[in-house]
Amino acid sequence: MNRVHNFSAGPAILPVEVLKKATEGLLEYKNKGRSIAEMSHRSPEYEAIDQQAKSRLTELLGLGDDFKIMFLQGGASSQFMMAPYNFLREDQTADYIDTGRWSNKAIKEAKLFGNVHRPYSSSDSGYDRVPENHELDLSDDPVYVHFTSNNTVAGTQFPSEPETDGVPLVCDASSDFLSRPIDASRYGIIYAGAQKNVGPAGVTIVIIRKDFLNRANTENVPTILQYQTHTEKIFNTPPAFNVYMVNLVLGWIQDKGGLAHFKQYNEEKAGLLYDEIDKDDFYRGAVEKDSRSIMNATFRLPSEELEQQFLEEAEEHDLYTLKGHRSVGGIRASMYNACPRESVETLVNFMDDFRAQNG
Ligand code: PLP
Q: Where does L-glutamate bind (predicted)?
């Protein structure tokens, strides 16, 4: 198999070891004469997968006994609705830090349920940064503070959890989930679509703090949209094959050394690329240095024509999916956990040559 260097923002590259194992499980799971995709989600085999994935997440994130984990459908986008549906009442306020496209989509949904206060927005500067703690203007009594830990489109990332005076965080961690350790005790909810760092698209991981869950509003919330429904048991048919693959990725993350390992690995990869960008002004980083993401590096070239040429020539070197998000243009290199260092090195060498020929 000749795998290309895949910089897709999502669905993104998966570890080749995991793909190989999943191919076996797809054909026949543990000599059972059936694929894992052909088994009941009430079977002992699937229940073991579900439990193992949850205990691996608990260990990787240091969750202890304080959290419940769910594997849901509907994407991170459905969490934009489900979180406020469960936790924000008409007469209440939730604070939403506005750092870009995905925060905005979350804000739009939350407004359907209650008041939304923006303690910070970088919209005036084209979402080129995330706030420092002293810039947060929190409301008096928010039920939670929502933030997007990594902004996939702009290429910014919170260096650590925002300070909220004890108010629980609700976090869209879709594009940096399991890329580095977090302080779990700060969160009420962490949610992430799997398709960047933990598996194929189709399953959404939702982690909720038990004491936060106790505050959930169940009145007039449809059964399937209540978090309680999914924390008590497997309510309806889960995306079983996807959870199986997520579990394989979680095992792979553990084998490699867990989140501390990936923090270092991801910082090293991003460092290589940002050093190349910063060498002179041929490439220009699209966001402020202190806010740069180690997952999605965004940058510009001197003209849109050169950017187009860059993308075309990159593919000739097996460097794929480097085009920036359609709403902002430019170049975006996504370097999630499974992106090998060699891919970033190949990209950096290509960028060096491209500059020498066109600078
Ligand atoms: N949030 C972030 C930060 C994302 O990057 C994305 C998708 O790229 C989403 C939410 C939407 O996720 P989904 O397509 O799973 O609804």
A: 42
Residues of the chain with pLDDT under 50: none
> Whole-angstrom Cα distance, residue 86 to residue 28?
40
281: its two tokens: 């002004």
CB 76 within 8 A of CB 192: yes
Q: pTM of the entire structure?
A: 0.98
Question: Within this chain, do residues 109 and 204 fall inside the same structural domain, yes or no?
Answer: yes
pLDDT at 69: 98
In this structure, the answer to whether residues 240 and 319 fall within a common structural domain is no
196 is catalytic: yes
- Specify the DSSP class assigned to residue 161: P
Q: What is the pLDDT, as a whole number, of residue 311?
A: 98
Last residue of a domain, one of 234, 256, 278: 256
- What does the block give as tokens for 198? 């933990």
User: Hey, whose CA ends up nearest to atom 10 of ligand 1?
Assistant: 76
Last residue of a domain, one of 256, 276, 310: 256
Rounded to the nearest angstrom, the distance between the alpha carbon of 11 and the centre of ligand 1 is 10
Tokens representing 310 are 């860059």
Q: From the candidates 50, 98, 172, 176, which is the catalytic residue?
A: 172
Q: Kindly state whether residues 266 and 276 are assigned to the same domain.
A: yes
**Given this model, what pLDDT does residue 1 score?**
79
Contacts of 337 (CB under 8 A, 6+ apart): 15, 178, 179, 197, 253, 262, 265, 266
Determine the 3-state secondary structure of 321 from DSSP: coil
